[in-house]
Amino acid sequence: MPAVPRFGQRQAKKLAQRPVAALPRTPQFFVRFGPPMTAEDLTHDAPSVLVESRKLIDDVLERRDKLQSAPDYVAPDTPFWRVPAKRRNKKGPKWEFHPQDAEDEGEAAPEQLQGIVDLGRNPLGRTPGGRRRSEPLSPSNATSKLLRADEDRPAEADVPQGPAEPELHRELDSPLDDAAAGAASVVESGGATRPSRRPEDSLIAALRRKATEYAQTGVDPELLQSLSEALQHHPGTERAARLREMQSCEKDFEALVMEGKASVANINELIRAQALQGRMADAMQTHDAMKLHGYAPDAETFVSLLAGAAHQRNADLARKLFLKMREQLISATPKVYATLIQAHVRAGDTASGYALLRKMEDESIQPDVVVHTVLINGLVNEGRIERAWEEFHAARTWKLIQPDEVLFTVMIKACAIMQEAERALNLLDDLRTCGLYPTDITYGEIIHAVSTTSDHARKAFDFYRQMQAEDLPVSAFVFEHLLQACRHLGDAKRAKALVEEMGEQHVVLSPVMYNHLVGLFATAMRRPHVSDVEKLQNLRHAWGVVSAAREAYSDKLDWTSLLNEIVGVYVAGGFSDFAMDMLPQYAVFGAEPDAETWEHLLRMLGERDIGRFFTLWNSVPKPLPEELYQVALDVALRSRSSQQTCAILEEMYTVPVFPSPQLTERLARAGRHIIQIHHQIGKFIALNRDVKVASAKRETGLTVRSPTPEQEFRDRYFDKLKKQGVFRRPWLPFGEYLVSKQKGGEAYARRHDKPRPNLLATSTSSTS
């Protein structure tokens, strides 16, 4: 074998017998006859490790020596700072397009494109970022296509149903590559695989199955008891099951007596079921019937009646029921007061709830955690978040009330309203530190809290997987905020998976969920390095979601909010002309632009076109949110127009809205030589003085003729304390009173023998 190098007779014999694919994998040939291969050798027709010719190896070595001996040779592994500046700054060849060459090549295109997709047949056009390619996605064309599809669709029932799953899933497909997006999702989730959707694979379901087996076999009673305790720590699930049972109750008092189950406890449950169903007249008739037949009502009876009044948000009826209870000489319990306070809070009268709290304290009834939870929840629902936190800390520190799962859930809801995700996570840690377990409602609120910010949105899916592991029911509220988290992340893959799971669990998409799905593509537009093709695909998917929403809800949609999301997609993609063309489309769907619409358009034009900004600003109905006035003043300062700046300042003075500190500094530099701006600033200073004086008078109570409601209540409270004798001196017998007035004794010493400073010691220390 003359062509095979002589490195071993046995190996040479194997080479002669085996095919080429079975040759050794180690680079023995090249290592024996030359240095190892480099990256430069791969650019030429260099031999592989399976080479069988010495001549090819010599050609490679000769070509390498010639290349490395060149004066301007730079090795591939040379750091960029060692590369000569002349070669480092060298620009590549500029690509030029010649239409004549393209026409010549166009004749032979059918022969050259055999087996390749013809890009010219793309319905979006030919140019990647041109007007022709995006023209079919303009607002007018998309709206006409949507209406035409709605006319061609056969008439269906008016019951709102979810969209067809394959169609909506197709609209949620990401424009990115499937493999890359799948790898990204694995990296984002920490490498964890998707949990199983089957309930029997979850942890708590397995524990429940084992507990049933132990109960049947009687094996290990201690383990059975520990499992039964672990399985009963979800009050949210149990409460929902109990409410469903009461909602389906159709019995009455006569049926209860005929079945032989008539007792005070069962009748109380019957009254509660009737009250929660909204049948307050039947509930009160049941109360009268139980008195007539010798069943004495107790406090639990009136708790059930008060729960019905709270369900109807009827505070007057709740007060009448409370007086009826007092008429029957039934003592009020903390549960009675809690239900009465809940009726007032749900009616929007939280102040009366606090008055009832003080009434409890006057009657020496210690309020429990339920009462404080009801009051704090009322403050949170009214938007008084700071006051709710004050009450929470006061109840926990001064009144030594230990919070339960419900109170922690209410405070997590307050964090979600204020978009404070980190504070909500700290509260969840506090809940677990206290030895409590989150309920399904707690998980729902924590998912709501973390889904409000893009920084913590990924944690929402961690809590969702935790709910699946604990076999907790997932409501539409949880799915809605999971879609909101997908919106902040711009993750269409996860949104598509969520929609599939909602279909499996028979959860219908709500109009708010459709808004989140459309807003998802606006976030995807803002991702770095988004190509024009991806932007056009995002627009197509957004309009596809709008079509699915119209098919599901027809005329029951809030078209203003949904079209605002479409405007946001156009603005995020940089299609300013199309965003302005969306204004006439609101009338097509019977809607009108609102403050959010003008905010999208004004912020877009403020960054791109100052002239069109002020044209739109003059036609927008006023007043607008305070942030838009700050944007208008910023644009006026950038336009260097004193007339526009003075006009914006005059409008801000009318609202009134004060310029921010940053804009005030810029205004001082830009308008130092303009007298009109100085006059406007003087008017703002006078307005600020009047506002501050008015707020100080209301806060400090300097005016006696117009006290605040808080000051009036404070005066009534201290008058009540004076009538009770709180500030009165203690009464003494006449003999002890005379002794206390005489000189000498303990009473005289307490009044007169007060400690005085040692002046002599003070003067001595100062002189020294």
Automatic annotation (TrEMBL):
Residues 66-201, 745-768 are annotated as: Disordered. Keywords: Repeat. Residues 179-192 have a biased composition (Low complexity). Transmembrane segments: none annotated. PPR repeats lie at residues 333-367, 404-438. Pfam families: PPR_2 (PF13041), TPR_24 (PF23276). Residues 404-497 form the Pentatricopeptide repeat-containing protein-mitochondrial domain. Residues 147-156 have a biased composition (Basic and acidic residues). The keyword Cell inner membrane does not apply. It comes from the Eukaryota. InterPro entries: PPR_rpt, TPR-like_helical_dom_sf, TPR_mt. The keyword Repeat applies. This is Pentatricopeptide repeat-containing protein. It comes from Symbiodinium microadriaticum.
